[in-house]
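Re: [help] complex structure
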Amino acid sequence: MIHFDNVTKVYVNQNRPALDHISVDVDKGEFVFLVGPSGSGKSTFLRLVLKEERPNSGAIHVAGKDLSKLSNFKVPHLRRRIGCVFQDFRLLPNKNVYENVAFALEVIGKPRRFIRKVVPEVIELVGLEGKAHRMPDELSGGEQQRVAMARAFVNRPMILLADEPTGNIDPATSIGIMKVLDRINRTGTTVLMATHDAAIVDSMRKRVVELEDGKIVRDQSRGVYGQAY
Amino acid sequence: MRANFIFSEVWIGLRRNLTMTIAVIVTVAVGMALLGIGLMINSQVSSMTSYWSDKVELSVYLCKENSPFEPCTDKKGISEEQKTALEAVIKGMPQVEDVIFEDSATAYKNFLDNQSNNVFASFLKVEDMPESFRVKLGDPDQSQAVTEELTGQAGVSNIVNQRQLLDSYFGFMDKLQWMALSVAFAMVFAATLLIGNTVRLSAFNRRRETGIMRLVGASNVYIQLPFVLEGVIAGLIGGVLAAVMLITSKVLIFDSIQNFIPEALGWNTVAGIISGTMAIGVIICILASFITLRRYLRV
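Output below.
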């Protein structure tokens, strides 16, 4: 599903590469934690998957497509197959829960009938039934992140990228968020989650890829956060 | 669905940037109106030029007895032989299309027909009127050369070139036209910058939305179209206002001078100019929007 082959990314005006000859394979339906300290290259990894950045060398395949051969014109179609969740939720403050989720479908031109059918389903999936007409500022942080997850998942992507989704949320609420991610993973969606949260990684017992200074220092199935290698 | 969504985005954009939108509308309106007026003067001048080109002729006046003009030094007037010779010379010139001889009686009659001042007319006798050759040229621009060639021919008292009388008028119209066009050019330039700025503000105001649209895979067209449409709508409203100004100026200015000039500006021409300026306004808006979006809206 995601295939990095000897990928190096150096940002302009930086000597040290953000990613240094990285090779990773993520299969369909996997749940992978991407861990490591700040600046270790986690976000760069996610941005490369989205083709927001281009690698300096190496090949990236996402959902069977070679990103270097993907024309700019087709990048939006790639992104339709990838859902994204962020630490800061990125909801539209002037739209309610339903509208925020529906927005993701409206802007890719889905018909209204389809939207009316799938949006309530996915709102229920993330556990926000009955709150469809709340505005984002009437929701708790955990609930806002659920909205963001609903928006990321509503188009049934093949891959869900989560960049520190629990970073702004207290540990108790984080468990609920992880349950939703797990539920999404069980539908067959590949989940790639960058995080600092040791407790969550330890409790989930999923594959862990650890980055440090742009290199992979650990790739372990059923791993924990801080385990020595 | 799609159209609904895009138009609601456009509406939100226009409303949020109301002051900038109004500035764009006014600039486009004034710019396009001036451009249109320039074009109207231009078409007026060219239609009048072609009208007058058909009519313009040289009047070659001949010496009479005691004629006061400088070349008629012998005070005897032109002889019949000289007259025939002169006519042959004129007819022999390649630029000349037609020559009519106007004798004193005809000149007197024409004078009376055109003259409202009866007191003045009562002084004049047929014998006072000069004889002349009315020379019609194939190409009116050659009048200067012909005049120079005929000056100094025996029996020619003076030559009146009607074109010189019209030139000062055309010159004035020409200046007016260029003034309107250069102000129009400046306004179009200002409008382009204003539209660019408006689109930039708009893109900044909606960076959250466009960021999410990018993320969920909205196509570039979907992301950019609302911004471009904002420009187009502002341009169209400006164009409509410009059209109103042009119609008003046609009715108030061009129709009022119609009494003095033979070739009036037709509604067909005005309609053509209006649609032309509107198209230019909208195209400028689209271009300005696109160029700005490429810089400020990374897709």
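Residues 54-165 of chain B form a domain with the Alpha-Beta Plaits fold (CATH 3.30.70.3040).
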